[in-house]
Amino acid sequence: MTVHGSIPLLIVDDEPPIRxxxxxxxxxxxxxxxxxxxxxxxxxxxAREAPEVMLLxxxxxxxxxxxxxxxxxxxxxxxxxxxxxxxxxxxxKVEALDLGADDYVTKPFGMAELVARIRTAxxxxxxxxxxxxxxxxxxxxxxxxxxxxTVRGAEVKLSNKEWDILRLLVLHAGQVLTHRMIMQRVxxxxxxVQYLRIYxxxxxxxxxxxxxxxxxxxxETGIGYRLQTDSGLTEDEAVLRSEVE
Length: 245
Hints:
alpha/beta, Rossmann fold, Arc Repressor Mutant, subunit A, four-stranded antiparallel beta sheet, 12 strands, 42% helix, disordered N terminus, disordered C terminus
C-alpha cells in the first residue's frame, strides 16, 4: 500500500458503479475518499472539506462539469481538478483545461495511469502554493531560480522565447497546456499557432536525444503540449493498465 497521509480526494460522478470502483481502487492507495453525485453536492463538499484533488465527470445531472470548473477557479479554489469523461472531443478537452482543470482523462482509463496523474496533480498543487521547483526528468534539468538548463550535465543555451515556453511547461509539469494558453502567456492573444510549433520544434532540437521521438515535451494532438514527469505512466504501467468497464 502507498500511504498519502489520508489526502482527501473527492469523486464527482453520477454513476454509482464508477464511484464504487474509484472508491475501492483509490482507498487502498491511502486516500480519504469523499463522494458526490451532482454539482451542488460537490461544491458543498469542496467548501466544507477542502479536498486536495477532485475527480470530476463532466456529464452531471444538475449542471455541466465545465461550469463546476469555472465556478471553482473564479472563486479562487486551489483544488487539483482531473476531469474524467467519456467525451472524446478535442474542443471539450481544450475548454476544460482552459477553464483551469489540471488534467483530462478519457473513459475508459487505466488505474495505473489515473494514480500517476493524481500524483502529478498534487505536485502541481504544491507548486501553485509557492514552491520554486528544480525540475528534473531523465537527462533534463531545469533550475528556474538560476535560469539554467542542462541536458546530460551540459548546459543548454535558450533564446528568451524558448525559455519562456519551457518555464511555463515546468511550472505546470505533467499538466496539459493548450496551444491558446501557451500563446497568450508567451506572446499575447493575437499570435498564429505556427509560431508556437516552430519554437517547440527548436526546443526539442536542443533538449531531446531524438527530437522526432520526444521524451520530455510531449504533444497532445489537437490540444497542446505536456512536459513529462518522473511520476508519469511507465512503459510497464501502460502495458498493464486495466480498463474501467
